[in-house]
Design brief:
With about 325 residues, the protein is mainly beta. It contains 2 helices and 28 strands.
């Protein structure tokens, strides 16, 4: 079990109130992000590729009893494989919307096994990993949208998890990090589903390496960031689960989205004010991005976040869409 007490605690207390950030910081944010596109339906994929005159539905199992459409209704979670495909979990139906901008196709990933999806991530091979609250397991689908296998589902209806939610994969090591919110733990797995360790303890706590309702997780090159919603903080660990530091995030809650770029910058959505908060690797606030509204670069109740190949994806839940931004001088697939 990877659970250690640190020899010292580095605490960076951070308040994300708008008044704490200078106007120069707000102006800097507009230069740091470049709007790429917004999308909410199959038509938005086909607009980029006018020669495509139809969409492709991926169906891994019969789902006739569940009405789904090619339009986002209540988007919550987003992920990308870094190859031009974006996956969106819509709270309105147990299905994953697949926007393939590289090929100009829209797909719908459905499966009888997927009944209450809560989180998802994707690797660069196009495999999609979905946490499902009903089965309390991780469902894996290949790049064609076909069911591959199920992790952590044991005898009968038993499962290792109580309520898996946020999930992320560390591409280099292949390690999976899964928030099991009811158990107040983050589970560390390999791709075969073997438990390598965990962070946290049953019953939760307020100390370093302890959680109260961990809901989201993100990774950088060498660190794991966990949104500890019940304690209103972010906790940062090394890849093996050793505590490094924590940062207070007063405005964060269970609906906030979390992402991190390869430079260690941390992105957190604030649905109350319609902004994305960015802090540096040292925990200090860098700037806020966006404002409440329905135009491009404006948000209404932003939730899920994902960063892939130099691009930031923001689930703009209140506007029923996803917005994509280029970070700095990066180019997006």
């Amino acid at each position: 079990m990877w659970l250690y007490s640190p020899t010292f605690i580095f605490v960076a207390v951070l308040s994300y109130g708008v008044s704490a950030l200078a106007q120069s910081d707000l102006k800097q944010s507009s230069a740091h992000f470049s709007f790429v596109r917004q999308f909410s339906s199959a038509q938005d994929v086909k607009r980029d590729h006018p020669i495509i005159d139809k969409t492709l539905d991926i169906v891994a199992g019969p789902k006739d009893e569940v009405p789904v459409t090619d339009v986002l209704h209540n988007p919550r979670v987003v992920a990308s494989d870094g190859q031009g495909r974006v996956f969106v979990l819509d709270g309105g139906s147990p299905a994953i919307h697949v926007f393939d901008f590289a090929r100009g196709k829209y797909s719908l990933l459905q499966d009888d096994r997927m009944q209450s999806p809560a989180g998802l991530t994707a690797d660069r091979s196009g495999n999609v990993y979905v946490t499902d609250n009903n089965s309390r397991s991780i469902l894996i689908y290949d790049s064609r949208g076909k069911f591959s296998r199920e992790l952590m589902k044991r005898r009968g209806e038993e499962s290792y998890f109580e309520g898996p939610r946020g999930i992320v994969i560390h591409e280099t090591s292949g390690l999976l990090y899964v928030c099991d919110a009811p158990r107040n733990m983050v589970i560390i797995l390999d791709k075969r589903g073997r438990v390598l360790g965990h962070i946290g303890k049953r019953g939760g706590g307020r100390g370093p390496g302890e959680f109260r309702n961990p809901v989201q997780v993100a990774v950088t090159n060498d660190e794991v960031i966990v949104l500890d919603a019940g304690n209103s903080r972010l906790q940062i660990f090394d890849l093996q689960g050793h505590f490094r530091r924590e940062t207070s995030v007063i405005d964060a809650d269970a609906q906030s989205g979390l992402a991190a770029d390869q430079d260690g910058n941390i992105y957190l959505s604030d649905g109350a004010v319609g902004q994305i908060e960015v802090s540096g690797r040292d925990g200090r606030p860098a700037f806020r991005f966006g404002e409440t509204g329905e135009n491009e670069s404006q948000f209404s109740r932003p939730t899920g976040l994902s960063i892939s190949s130099g691009c930031l994806f923001v689930v703009d839940t209140g506007n029923r869409r996803v917005q994509e931004f280029r970070i700095g001088g990066n180019s997006c697939p």
